[in-house]
Amino acid sequence: MKLEELEQLLKSLHLHRIAEMLSEELATTKKRNLSYETMLLRLLRAQWQAKQESALNYRITKAKIPEQWMLETFPFKKQPGVSKRQIDSLAELDFISRHENIVFIGPTAVGKSGLATGLLLKSLYNGYRGRFIAAQDLFDEMYASLADRSTRSLLNNLTKVDVLVIDELGYLVVKPEQTNIFFKLIGERYRRKPTIITTNLDYDEWTNFLGNQPLTDALLSRLRHHCHTIRIEGPPIREPQIQ
Predict the structure, then answer these.
(1) How would CATH label the architecture of 71-231?
(2) Which partner for 112 in 30, 70, 102, 198 could form a disulfide, CB atoms 3.0-4.6 Å apart?
(3) Angle between the N-to-C axes of helices 2-12 and 16-31, in degrees from 0 to 180, rounded to the nearest 10
(4) Closest CA to 63 of 156, 155, 130, 160
């Protein structure tokens, strides 16, 4: 009866992992003549590990990553246009504390999104909060926010995440109102939080995309001030699937 009461108290305190293990750990402690200090340490370690795993799963869910590309499985041998040494250096995550942006530039299917996602996942595994968003979805949300006056809330949410990935910038038509909000987003993250962008456009093409020369110049000035620009000039690595 006391064991059942103890397990219920542990659950009420949200120590579910300890509650699950308690009965078995008590039996193991008695059988192996272990100290209660050893048992308590084992239980607390398991609870801490469970809490870490739960927090990681929450961060991954909130990041809204469509595909969990890991840097460890990226096919560097198939993509000679990417320096593994440079990516490994970025994977140390110093760019986060230094508030340095990363821009991957290259054609379709060369691995831009995979590398950006891999760096984002690495950040999440190390306790940072992140968000992955397709450029099309981002600009749609920006335009929709004008109708219900939620632009400030949208910017606040995107500004506070530690690592923001904007994927496939350039494959859309942008309205002036969206350009203005995008400029505010980059400006508010400038020297505060890093942004990772994948795009098929080199910098001199951004004016045609955003449609405002002075605003584009100001945006790029902030984006590129502390920025790793990685141009991928290599073969496609995304192979067609046999149906």
Answers:
(1) 3-Layer(aba) Sandwich (3.40)
(2) 198
(3) 140
(4) 130
